[in-house]
Write a structure and sequence with these properties.
Helices cover 23% and strands 29% of the residues. It is an alpha+beta fold. The chain has a single domain, classed as 2-Layer Sandwich (60s Ribosomal Protein L30, Chain: A). Strands 1-2-3-6-4-5 form a 6-stranded mixed beta sheet, with helices on one face.
Amino acid sequence: MREVVYTKAAPEPIGPYSQAVKAGNLLFVSGQIPLDPKTGDVVKGGIREQTRQVLENIKAVLEAAGYGLSDVAMAFVFLADLSLFGQFNEVYAEYFREKPPARVTVQAAGLPRGVLVEIAVIAVKQ
């Protein structure tokens, strides 16, 4: 069974995709960029502010599906510039303090709307 997840607490999709899809006990959260869900605009600031907004957006989608950050098993991180990795990691660690998920981090040649970071996750409920 496949269920589409949607919440107004996260940005509207900017293309033909769902914020998340639940399949069994897995939740696949689409890549989130640092858009303010109220305005649809990219948040002001650098990598720290953008990372925080992305993770808040992911948290909102997870919560709408009955999941939490502790249920995230895998994260896929796309950075516009790997020299930002240290600053990104500082904020990321605030959200995943204990038993962080597995993660892939790559530098992307270009991200939507010229943002500095995009993150997608897979969460699992036992």
